[in-house]
Amino acid sequence: MSKVASGKTTAPKAKLLDEFNASIMFDKELYLQDIEGSIAHVKMLSKQDIISNDARDKIIDGLAIIKKEIEEGKYQFNIADEDIHMSIESRLSTIIGDDAKRMHTARSRNDQVALDFRMYVLKSNKEIISLLLELERVLLNISKKHTKTLLPGMTHLQHAQPINFAYHMLAYVSMFKRDIERLEDSYKRNNISPIGCAALAGSPYKTDREYEASLLGFDSVSINCLDTVSDRDFALEILFNISTLMMHISRISEEIILWSSSEFGFVELSDEYSTSSSIMPQKKNPDVPELLRGKTGRVNGNLISLLTVLKGLPLAYNKDMQEDKEGVFDSVKTAKISVKILSEALKGMRIDEQAMLKATKKGHLSATDLADYLTANCGYTFRDAYKLTGEVVAFAEENSKDMSELNLQELQKFEPKIKEDVIETLQLETSMNARSSQGGTATCSTLAQLEYFENWMKKS
Q1: CA–CA gap between residue 227 and residue 221 (Å, rounded)
Q2: Which of 2, 6, 156, 437 is catalytic?
Q3: Per residue in 250-263, pLDDT tens?
Q4: I need a labelling partner for 381 at 20 to 30 A (CA). Which of 27, 297, 335, 360 fits?
Q5: pLDDT by residue (tens digit) across 112-155?
């Protein structure tokens, strides 16, 4: 079978137009969705006595042959067929003859591509969620081992307050949990069938859209056909969700890059997920997190690209919308491999607890604890306590000490009311464990967060 017959243009098309107009070389990614959609469609058509059961069975058997050919690499994709829909219909015609033409009854390529693409996006949603749940398990396993491992918590990339490493990792567990929830919400919102909308206005045939939707696993059918064939919100949503996910991946990647440097030395990536310099044999480069950080740019570009394509389109379908797929395919592929490799890199990452502990003794991380002590025990307002604490910090620096290393006599030079219990207050572990409010860094609070996330994982 050749291309769709044209009702208005009759002159042969230029070869250059074939190349420019065709989408077959990338939308062949949708072959499985196209076949599954066509099987459901002909089942509905036969149920409604629009085509015979014999035609239905021939079409289904022929589509099974095509599926096998594609999966075995024997199928020939021809640019002359323009898109995956016409490619499959053309091949089906050579297998079963004219009954293949009945497959297109009561539908248009407009609702057909909307169906195929939506099914692909929904399937990808589930696949990314599954990979993210594995990443969450990896992060939780790391966290369980480090609820007492001290490291400097930072703001503005400056040492701020002592926290534990599990607490830091659970911040990323929180981020990826939101990513999972966004994908789940998108799945629920977009699990609506477009098939049966035809070109834009519905079909004159007595179709059963609900039946066809149920065969394909949709929760319901769309309400307005004009909106449905031009709707690509589901594609924008997965692109946005992936961009947000990759932003989170980029943030943890940036920290791994910093932590693995000589200046920090908090972690060391395994040789399996590192590379060496081409001329400097002593170097071990964090290529995995660097690539993850870099790939965030390309998925952001895919989101902006589709937003730009769609921003001025009148209803309903326009050929501009052929540009909706490549960016989504690329972002889905990027997200899947990124989550996988981050999980694997984290599994083999060595954590240097002593280097983290040593780093907490720089930057006077218990300074806020002294200000709180002066406020609670010595009659100071917090602002006055803050000012006096700054003077103590300056004194500690002049004497090459961390504030946590000052003795009672040194502290009493600034305020005689300070008592011996201040020494324990200023210890870094005490400071960390003092922050036991809900969501805080204290080990007891971190353990409560771990329990929360583990319970959530059991339900996911």
Answers
A1: 12
A2: 156
A3: 999 999 999 999 99
A4: 360
A5: 999 999 999 999 999 999 999 999 999 999 999 999 999 999 99
Cα 323 from Cα 311, distance rounded (Å): 13
Indicate which residue of 130, 220, 276, 277 is catalytic.
Answer: 277
CA–CA dist 89, 94 (Å, integer): 9
Count of other CB atoms within 10 angstroms of residue 429: 17
Picking from 335, 180, 346, the residue whose alpha carbon sits closest to that of residue 255 is 346
Count, in order, helices (H) and strands (E) of the chain: 19, 6
Q: 138: how many CB neighbours lie within 10 A of its CB? A: 18
Task: Tell me if 321 sits within 8 A of 110, measured CB to CB.
Answer: no
Which of 147, 177, 139, 152 shows the shortest CA–CA distance to 447?
Answer: 147
Structure-token match 């591509």, residue found: 113
**Residue 56 near residue 43 (C-beta atoms within 8 A):** yes
436 catalytically annotated: no
Map tokens 């239905």 to a residue: 56
Q: Residue 107 — left, alpha, or beta (φ > 0 → left; ψ -120 to 50 → alpha)?
A: beta
- Per-run averaged pLDDT (10 residues), the chain, 460 residues: 50 70 88 98 98 98 98 93 94 97 96 98 98 98 98 96 98 98 98 97 97 98 97 98 98 97 95 75 84 97 98 95 96 98 97 97 94 95 96 95 94 96 96 96 98 95
- Is 277 a residue of the active site? yes
Length of the chain counted residue by residue:
460
d(Cα 316, Cα 114) in Å, to the nearest integer? Answer: 12
In terms of C-beta density within 10 A (0-12 exposed, 13-18 middle, 19 or more buried), how is residue 415 classed? buried
Q: Residue 172 is which amino acid?
A: Y
DSSP 8-state secondary structure symbol assigned to residue 390: H
pLDDT given for residue 21 in this prediction: 74
Distance from C-alpha of 273 to C-alpha of 101, rounded to nearest angstrom: 52
What phi, psi does 155 have (nearest 5°)? -130, 145
Task: Indicate the pTM of the whole model.
Answer: 0.93
For 87, other C-beta atoms within 10 Å of its C-beta total 26
User: Distance between CA 114 and CA 318 in Å, rounded?
Assistant: 12
Range 236-261 burial, b when 16+ CB lie within 10 A, else e: bbbbbbbbbbbebbbebbebbbbbbe
* Six token digits for residue 282: 């002593």
